[in-house]
Amino acid sequence: MTAYALEELTSPEAGRLGAEGAIGLIGTAAVEQHGPHLPLGTDAIIARHLAHEVAERLDQPAIVAPVLPGGLSSHHLGFPGTVDLPKAVFDGYVRALLDTYDALGVQTVAVFSAHGGNFGALAELTGQHGGVRVIAYTDLQRYIRVMMAAAADTGLHAPETDAHAGGLETSQMLYLHGEDHISFSPDLEGYVAAEPGWLERLVADGMRALSPNGVLGRPVGATAVAGAAICAALADELAAWVRMSQAAQ
Q: Which CATH number fits domain 3-140+233-247: 3.30.365.10, 3.40.50.10310, 3.90.780.10, 3.40.50.300?
């Protein structure tokens, strides 16, 4: 139906939407290094776009929260510009939004992330918060599979490790941020070996230990067309998840 940005509503408008049965939607993200070619705010830009696209696909109005400019990014601290929020700050922001939705009379709030590092924290937030039922999208592997399948349909076949600043996210940013703003060398390549335990090593030792240039995957082949397909597929996936979660109530 319709997306309503919380920060753009007046207080009476927000109260009316809550009373009329609007759903709450919280997108989370990060501000962190994305290789030598993508903005630090890549995840936040994607999350803002997805939140509004998801809202437009739902069967009821949605009040969309502002995206917090930061996330859980300790594994990226080896690179300049990364903002790593203490978990208490991240959790506190989401819970403050849940309090706001509760006061508005919103009964269901859906939370998702465009940054892989937040998925574990979101799982801990699922459940009841005052009068609000909180649902959180926590299947990171499925999220990445949706991206890869959508990219493949356009001819972009990403390597298994393409989870950060590779062809998938570069395509999204070519679409969302503009082809005039994104450039990279055709030989730019990050970590593609996919050795056993590589994800565990990423978490334990940080991104720089795995990929000195901060890229997982290979940006070459990225296109705005693929980016549009990836974003649409993710919005469809998240909207379907919200509807399914509501039907299970």
A: 3.40.50.10310
